[in-house]
Amino acid sequence: MSAPMSEPEPLSLPDAESTESWIQERTSSTLADVRAAADRLKASPPADALGVVRAWDDAMLALGSLAGMVSLLANVHPVEAVRTVCEDTEAALDRLRTELSQDADLYAVFAGLPEDEAAGLDPLAARVLAKTLQDFRRAGVDRDEATRVRLKEINERLTELDQEFSRVIRDDVRTVRVEPERLAGMPADWLEAHPADEDGLVTVTSDYPDALPARMFVHDADVRRQVTVASTNRGWPHNEPVLREMFDLRHELATLVGYPDWASYDAEVKMIGSGDAIPEFIDKIAAAAEAPMKRDLDVLLARYRQDVDSIPGASAAAISTADSLYYEELVRKEQLDVDSQLVRTYFDFPKVRQGLLDVTGRLFGVSYEPVSDVQTWHEDVAVYDVVRGEGAARERLGRIYLDLHPRAGKYKHAAQFDLATGVKGRQLPEGALVCNFSRGLMEHDHVVTLFHEFGHLVHHVLGGQGEWARFSGVATEWDFVEAPSQMLEEWAWDADVLRTFATNADGEPIPAELVEKMRAADDFGKGYHARTQMFYAAVSYWFHTERPQDLTARMVELQAAYSPWPYLPDTHFFAAFGHLGGYSSAYYTYMWSLVIAKDLFSAFDRADMFGPEVAARYRDKVLAPGGSKDAADLVEDFLGRPFTFDTYAAWLAS
Ligand SMILES: [Zn+2]
């Protein structure tokens, strides 16, 4: 069976009124098709291994594309009924995935392929087969009946625990009540929105919009301490037994399918490869960050000592988390003076959006053609075709949807979503960016976020030109996927790049000296930031591996070993450390991919960020292959050597 090679057409989305029924129809037909494909594979599998692998990949293409689309629409569609039906579809797809992964007869079709047949597959098809068999085994499909029943129970209970853990974090809001005069330092608009109650006190909650400015700006050290203690006790004590049960069940699951512990099970399908490599990595980063941490802490401490006599219970030897954000902010303001009001005048949204397209188009050798007259889910959404070549050689690579401004009922953060999984000649890759940026002047932070998220989108499109759905787009190991986006952030920090689109109302480009100051302010604290991250990573790893009875006691030890900040008595930050749910033992991921991002970027010439040879090599060797090779091999193909830690360490030390 060979796929037709004519260019596939993009999706055409329905209007708002018909979306609900359109999703329902697509859901029932896709579920039926995938089930039928699984049944056909079991009843009368294709005679050849390639036919088996191809049939499975086709079914997964349908399943994955629908999953991407409903996840997007559940987060952006203005009609609530559509969002609800999309959430229902997501749950139904999850159930089907679990059911298929535990179907012993289906597994037998793949496991029973004659050896010479499997050996005759081309390398990519063989890789699809190997990954498929690995998925089945990790789900425990080849274990005895009693084990499979227990695995099912564990998975169901883990889902409940994960939901409970998140719900408690979300719902547990603590409050601190203080006299208005003790809130001096808070932004004027915050104070205006928070008048005193009848008893003359103002309520400060542990939610970010209150707690973060309070910890950053309030001059009264005791108020900062109270807010910090309240914030780092959210979820406690309720979540401690929830977490202990979660760690125990994850451990049991891993051992039932043949691994020594959860971290080993989890790391097997990641770039880091083994559980043991995680604490090694944490210690390596911690060592590299030691001197840079001390350097920046000394600056903070010097400023802190000017005030220390007026801080009750303070020691001049160390700053606690109750004061760290406040003094960091003070040092930034007093010593690294960057006027954020001035910075904003150079980042007008329409120019930034065009700048992003021009910069990435030039870098990756593509152009973006605006598409009007197509249906989208909201009038704010801008649609572009991603195109390579001109005239007869013109080739449409994919389609992107940019949904970049806030509105009611929409996802609150910034993320890239898939709309269609790309497979050459079969289906065009389509994806969306969902963000919440101002329509006017933007913070530079948001410009960096835009470049970061666009990195995922361009990876989805450029990596969506291959033969297999399994490897399409951002299909690399989970601890690698942030690296291309973290690297693309560098283009939003380069003065020469910025001057091409960051111009003020008079058309003057942002001065290089200002960009230099912005970078210096951003770099301040990178050493102690790395150490804080390694403290979190150590908690995530050792809690899963050791499963301590007293989580607080173990956390205090790890804090002493890794964190720049001493333990603040009677606090239990882990109870609201939401990443213990999603990242589990792999919180190291963010730093791991940053190390690789820095190494990837070292191949580019800072004096010529658009060097065409290196940019094309990066596109073709790292992004275009999607998940068709191990990430370590993609990086080595690009760099011409295995990745190393050196560029990151040098950056940290600089
Ligand atoms: Zn990202």
Q: Any overview of this molecule?
A:
There is one protein chain. By secondary structure, the chain is α+β, with helices and mostly antiparallel strands. 57% of the residues lie in helices and 6% in strands. The chain contains 27 helices and 7 strands. It has helices at residues 16-43, 49-76, 80-101, 104-111, 115-119, 123-138, 145-171, 188-193, 208-217, 221-231, 239-256, 262-267, 277-305, 321-335, 340-344, 349-364, 444-462, 482-488, 495-498, 512-523, 526-546, 551-562, 579-582, 589-601, 612-623, 631-639, 646-653; strands spanning 175-178, 202-205, 367-371, 382-388, 395-403, 415-420, 430-434. The strands form 2 sheets. The chain has a 5-stranded mixed β-sheet with strand order 3-4-5-7-6. A two-stranded antiparallel sheet has the order 1-2. The mean pLDDT is 95. It binds zinc ion.
